[in-house]
């Protein structure tokens, strides 16, 4: 016996898919070029303008009184900072000019004092020579003073010797290819060892108190700044000085500098060299007799 089957349930309606799933990605992007969030905001702004009658968005309204005060304060601060910076720059420039002027005046005064000292030294030498020349018994003393002055560098000298020029390597841009103070020291020591009797560098007479060192980026001799090329006037035997210098340790070192880094050194014999006197001031040295006399006077009650 057959049984009645119940009526079939109505088929469920299929769920609706989002447009991006049914249209295809390319068609969806073309149809929805504007993001939905932008469209939502635009619709909200249109509704707000329709309700309020104001066609200017709130964010574009004029700045209120407080905003104007804030903008004015910022402007005042910017102007004040600019004025202060301008005044500071002007003050710094004025200080620099004043300091440069002080240095220049000090240099001029120092040069004036040096010229005056040299003139007084020449006058002293003239008076001393005249006084000794008037006394026949003082001839030996005068000769000894001249000999000691020539050796000490306090008297100008003349005589044969060699002219030496030391210079940087061509196109030198580094310390390696530049004449250093140690190179000049080595050069001078080599010529002393070779038999030099008097030496001057760029017009600066060398004594036992002379220094050759770097100060302020320049080589100084007797506290005078020198520039390359460095010209040495060496009084001595012009026939033997070059060869004996080449045999010294300093001479060998200079030959190595010429070969390795390109420093330039020329030695030329001369028959008549003139070396100036050095400005030597002894502050602590006394002759033995004078020191003994001073000690005796201080010990006398």
UniProtKB/TrEMBL annotation:
Q: Which UniProt keywords apply?
A: Coiled coil
* Any one GO cellular component localisation term in the record: plasma membrane
Task: Write down the InterPro entries for this protein, in alphabetical order.
Answer: DUF881 (IPR010273)
Coiled-coil region list? 103-130
Protein family: Belongs to the UPF0749 family.
The name of this protein is: Uncharacterized protein YlxW (UPF0749 family)
Q: What lineage does the source organism belong to?
A: Bacteria, Bacillati, Actinomycetota, Actinomycetes, Propionibacteriales
């Amino acid at each position: 016996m057959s049984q009645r089957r119940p009526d079939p349930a109505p088929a469920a309606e299929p769920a609706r898919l989002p447009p991006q799933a049914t249209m295809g990605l390319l068609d969806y992007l073309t149809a929805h070029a504007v993001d939905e969030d932008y469209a939502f905001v635009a619709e909200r702004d249109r509704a707000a303008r329709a309700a309020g009658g104001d066609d200017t968005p709130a964010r574009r309204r004029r700045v209120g009184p407080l905003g104007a005060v804030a903008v004015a304060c910022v402007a005042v601060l910017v102007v004040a900072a600019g004025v202060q910076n301008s005044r500071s720059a002007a003050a710094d420039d004025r200080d620099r000019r004043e300091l440069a002027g002080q240095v220049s005046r000090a240099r001029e005064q120092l040069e004036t004092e040096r010229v005056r000292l040299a003139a007084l030294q020449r006058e002293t030498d003239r008076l001393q020579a005249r006084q000794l020349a008037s006394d026949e018994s003082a001839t030996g003393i005068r000769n000894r003073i001249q000999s000691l002055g020539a050796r000490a560098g306090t008297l100008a000298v003349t005589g044969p010797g060699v002219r030496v020029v030391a210079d940087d390597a061509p196109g030198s841009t580094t310390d390696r290819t530049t004449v250093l103070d140690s190179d000049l020291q080595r050069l001078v020591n080599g010529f002393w060892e070779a038999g030099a009797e008097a030496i001057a560098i760029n017009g600066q007479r060398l004594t036992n108190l002379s220094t050759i060192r770097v100060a302020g980026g320049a080589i100084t001799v007797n506290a005078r700044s020198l520039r390359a090329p460095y010209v040495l006037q060496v009084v001595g035997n012009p026939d033997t000085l070059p060869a004996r210098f080449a045999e010294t340790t300093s001479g060998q070192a200079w030959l190595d500098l010429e070969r390795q880094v390109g420093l330039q050194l020329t030695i030329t014999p001369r028959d008549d060299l003139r070396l100036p006197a050095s400005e030597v001031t002894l502050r602590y040295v006394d002759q033995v007799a004078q020191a003994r006399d001073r000690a005796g006077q201080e010990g006398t009650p």
